[in-house]
Model the fold of this input.
Amino acid sequence: MDQPNSENVELQEAEMRAELARISQKLYSIEDPDVRSALKARVAELQLKLGIDTSRLAAEISVPQKQEAPKTGMAELQAVLEMQKAKIRQQSVAEEEMAEILVDGEIPTPTASDLEAADKLVQQARVEKMRNNAVKVRELLEEAARVAPGSSPVQEMLGDEYAERKQSAKALAAYRRAVKIDPKNVNAERKLAQVALSIDTGASMVTDDSAIPMASQKAALFISIFFPGLGHIVVGQKTKGWTILGLWLASTAWLILQWGDLAKLLAMAGGGRVHPNLLVLVPVMLMLILFVVTLADFKKPQEDARKPIDRPRPPVDLPFE
Done:
C-alpha cells in the first residue's frame, strides 16, 4: 500500500518542479507588475512545498531601469563606473541562480512519437529562420523542447536561439539540460562553457585595465586630447593611464629644459640656418606617439565580430511534412 502513495508523491513533486520551471521562465520575461506579483506568489508557494531555500533568490530577475545620463566630471564618471560594476555583478549572480532553477528536476526520456513531433517543429523553425521570423523561431523551439524535453539536440538548438538573443540565463539552462541528458554532447558542453564564461567575464570586465565603459568613452576621449593618459585614469585604467600621463609630463619637462633647441628646430624647419641639438626630437616624437596611441585606443571597435553558432543535427532524420 505504501508503494503507490510513494509513487504519487514523486509524481506530484515532479509536476510541481516542472510548473516551477515554466513559471520561472515566464517571470524572467514578463514586465507587467501585477502578473509578476501573481507569478512570484505561486513560485514562493511551490518553493515552500518543495523545500527550496528562497533566501538566495531575493534578487531574481527584475525589470532593468533606465539610468540617468552620467555627467562628464571626473567624480561623476567614477561613480557611474562603480554603479556599473555592482549592477553587472548582481545580474551575473541572478542569471546563475535562475539557470540553476530552470535545470533542476528530472528530465523525462522522450518517446519515438515525441521525437517525431519535435523534429517537425524543429524543421518548421528552420523555415521561419530563413524568413527572419525570430519570434516564431523561438516559439517553435520552445514548443519542441516542451514536447521532447529529454532530447539533447533540441535543448542545444534552444540554447543557440537564446544565446543569439543575448538571453544568457535561458541559454545557460538549455545547454545544461542538453549536457545533463547527453554527457557526450561535446558541442553543447563547449557552448555551455562559453556562455558561463561570458557571464563571468561581464562581471569582471569592468575591473580590467583593458575595459572602457561606453558611458564615459566620449568624455575620456575629450580629456585625453589635452592630457593623454588622464582619460584612461577616469575610466578606471589606472596602470595604463598613469604610464601614459607620466611619459607625457616627462616629455613636456624635457622640452621646457631644451626650449632653445626647440626654437632652433622650428626655425630650421622654416628655412633658417641654425643647428639645434637634435636630441630635442626624442621628446617631440614620444609625445606624438603617445597622442596617436591614446586617441586610437579610444576609437577602436568595442565589439568583436559575432562568431557563427554550430547548429546541431535534428533529433531524428525524418522527412518534412
The first helix runs from residue 2 to 29. The chain has 13 helices and no strands. The chain has a mean pLDDT of 73.
